[in-house]
Every structure is written in C-alpha cells, then in structure tokens.
Amino acid sequence: MKYNRILLKLSGEALSGDQGNGISPEILSTISNEVKELVELGVEVAIVIGGGNIHRGVAGATVGMDRTTSDHMGMLATVINSLALQDNLERKGVNTRVLSAIEMQEIAEPYIRRRAVRHLEKKRVVIFAAGTGNPYFTTDTAAALRANEIDAHVIMKATKVDGIFDKDPMKFKDAVKIDRLKFIDVLNNSNIKVMDSTAISLCMDNNIDILVFNMFVKGNVKRAVFGDQIGTIVTNK
Question: How far is CA 165 from CA 178, 180, 186, in A?
Fold first, then answer.
C-alpha cells in the first residue's frame, strides 16, 4: 500500500445526501462500508467530519449571530455526526473511538494526541470531533492539524466529484479534471476550491499531500491507498 495511515476528511453536507440537511442512513452506511474495507486491509484510519448538514458557523454569523457562539454550535454539530458514524461503524464490527476537542466525557474521549495514536496502532478508527475546539477555525483546518499531529501519510478529502476541475463540473460539461496541483498554485488561484488557505498552508509547510477524490464510487478509497491514479493530488512535489 502507498498509504498506511490516512486522515479522511468528510463534509457534513455529504452526510445529508439528497435530503439537503440531516443525516442520510444510506450515505452513512456507504461511508462505513468503505472505511471497514480499509480497516480490513490494515490501514490506520482517522476521520474528521464537518457539521454543515446541521449548522455552519459562518452561515450563522452572516445572519447576525455572534460568530463565536455560532462556531461553537457548529462544533457540536460535528459531534452529532461523529457519534452517528461511530454507531454505524460499530454495528458493522469496526472498533471506533470518538475524540472530542471540547470535553464532554459522557459521550466522547477528550482529544489527547498520544491516545489517538495508540488507538490507531490498535487498528481502531479514530473520529476527531469538535474541530480544533476553537472558533474561527474550520474543520478543514482541523483535518490538516490532526493529520500533522498523528503523522498521517495523506489527507483524503472526500467529495461528490472525481477531483479538482478547472471549473464546476456540476454546471459545465466541458470542465477538465486536473490530475496534479502544487499547493502554491491552489493558494494563488482563488477559483480552485480545495480547503481553506489556513489548511492548505499547514499541509504545504509540513509536506502532507491532499488527495481530492469521489468517495461515492465503490472501491475508490481502496484504490487510493494503493496509489492508483484517481482524483487530484495536491502536493509540494
């Protein structure tokens, strides 16, 4: 395998499926099946999930809500999503731990780096909840931060399209997929939407590649860890 320890970044919106909000049981099951296949291969899997299917901090702030309060609500939304994914994985026989950046000992373990790494070494799936625990930071930044802390070999950003395109493939049929990009090109081109600039800079400075791919094509995650050419790789190389 090319990657033995990965951090999988899921958006909250992806969990809602066609509903637009909430959590789709079908999508949850699809994601769990893909993760289970990785665990059975021996891959160490960490996951960061957004909360946009329930509440987005920035969206709340745009309608007059206090930004810090709104971001805290968004963090709680990620905890809800994390618990839902944990439950689905556990019912499929995958040992899973939720580690929260905000202490809530009744439902999740506190985030401690060494504990997270130990769980991974024991082949447990680790779900990082509540972002970084701080307002004004996105779950993209949380993914980049946690990937660095656990020495992940790559960040795999799951999307509904096959990678990064020169324009929106959902709107333009002539959109062209880009197979490889450098971090600096992503930072310099505001039209390329991968992760926010803080997350991109953190990955660039610490040489952690980002693979953007379509997770909802069966077997794509497995192909990715074996180094097959899928999606778009963002790298310093």
Answer: 6, 11, 12
Averaged pLDDT, 197-220: 94
**pLDDT for the residue 14:** 86
pLDDT digits (tens, 9 = 90+) for 160-207: 888 999 888 878 888 889 999 999 999 998 878 889 999 999 999 999
Tokens 């296949």 belong to which residue?
37
Please, are residues 157 and 194 in contact by the beta-carbon 8 Å criterion? yes
- Bridge partners (DSSP) of residue 159 are 214
**Amino acid type, 38:** L
CB atoms within 10 A of CB 196: 14
- Domain 5-156+210-229 indexed as CATH 3.40.50.150: no
133 secondary structure, DSSP code: S
Per the listing, tokens 């995650």 go with 221
> What is the four-CA torsion angle of 158, 171, 180, 231, rounded to 10 degrees?
40
With residue 157 as reference, give the H or E element that holds it. Answer: strand 154-159
Q: What is the pTM of this model?
A: 0.94
Q: Which two tokens stand for residue 32?
A: 């769990």
Task: Provide the 3-class DSSP secondary structure of residue 86.
Answer: helix
Round to whole Å and give the CA distance between 158 and 172.
21
Q: Do residues 126 and 47 touch, judged by C-beta distance below 8 A? A: yes
Planar angle of CA 164, 151, 105, nearest 5 degrees: 100
In the block, residue with structure tokens 């809500």: 65
In the numeric block, which tokens belong to residue 99? 């580690």
